[in-house]
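Figure 2 data, in text form.
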Amino acid sequence: MPLEFEIAPGRMIGENHPCFFIAEIGQNHQGDINIAKQMIQVAKDAGADCAKFQKSELKHKFNKAALARPYNSPHSWGPTYGEHKEYLEFSHDQYRELKAFADSIGILLSASGMDEKAVDFLDELGVPFFKVASCDTNNMPYIESTARKGRPMVISSGMQTMETMRQVYNKVKSINDKFCILQCTSAYPLDPEDVHLNIIKEYQKEFPDIPIGYSGHERGNAITLAAVGMGAKVVERHITLDKTWKGNDHEASLEPAELKELIAGIRVIEKAMGSTVKDMRACEMSTFKKLGKSVVAACDIPADTPLTAEMLAVKVAEPRGFPPERIYELIGRKLNKSVEFDDSILEIDLEI
């Protein structure tokens, strides 16, 4: 199974590829397709790789009683939960319109299929990958049927245990090798002490042959930047045009300026991660030339005298001499000429 894979044509994730950023619009569009398009444009302008929605076929996601339940909330768009959800749900034709718009401005569009019928539609729509929302991660029939469609999968892990995630991993792995798992805690907004970024490291140990990512619902950018520093290869954050708007997710979402700042910060972190090889860098040479130290004589040293530790010191010296990390190699060696106090000990002055 690959530690990297192509999540969309020409876009690899995992290994040393750039972090794949999903701007989660969800239902923060307020049921207005023009706002949805505006948010897709915001995601594109900020540098996101993908704008993502949530697609439900309501009668397949909820039973009759759930849809009929009264919904008395400041965030309600209808007197029952079903009417509320219906208000926020885009039709198939509207999704086709949104995808065409995203294609026209050069950003990927996908959605969480919130039930199997919704996944069928998203497959027909041609999304580059399927996003599995946390509420469906332990829905094994859904997981299996989605994996069998063959598209890459991004699987969130909110509300799950490690044992469940092992089951999910094993099930998907047996069918489809193009998937990743995101650490996630399903609370909106999410307090720092409930984030548990260390689970990213546990996932990296448990599932070492797939990319691991992070889906965040916290306020601000710091925690997501830390996740990228820990190796998150996919990041998902909710976005909004206004955190004060009606809706449960707005408060835990990023406004356009925050989104742009976060993605720019991720790209800086990726540059800063650099190499695993520790060596002196070209950018350090001017500092090294000015401040790098050498071995010097701590006293006058006659030629052909065995060197002792007391005869040697370490200073910033001109000319540059024997490197101080090798000073103990000099003990017992002899010089082929006399060296005065404070002069550099040079390699060419050593007897062979």
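Caption note: The longest helix spans residues 256-273.
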